[in-house]
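Researcher: Re-running this chain for the archive, since the previous output was lost when a drive failed. Same request as before.
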Amino acid sequence: MMKKILVLALLSLLTLSLAACEPANTDNTNANKAVSSSPIAATPAPPSPTPEAVASVKPQLKAGDKVKVTINGSTTQAMVVSVDEKAGKVTVKISGQKEEKTVAITDIVSEK
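Model: Regenerated structure tokens:
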């Protein structure tokens, strides 16, 4: 008889400890609730310019073109050696210098 009481006591303690792990409230207060029943129309973002559109703004440069390049705030005459449109860089030979210099396409002004 004593064993039955002890087993019942242990089972009741076990069920109480398991019940303590479960939330007493099944209502989830963190759930997203609709504020209004009418759907809100999303406004599309303006399209960003594509690289082709940006490249078309600048005149097309090719090897041999005479240009003016801005280096350290001063403009100098140069000749285009090569163009990397993907990277946005131009290699130029500056008048009066032996070595070539790579600069951004934005630093180039065509002399056409």
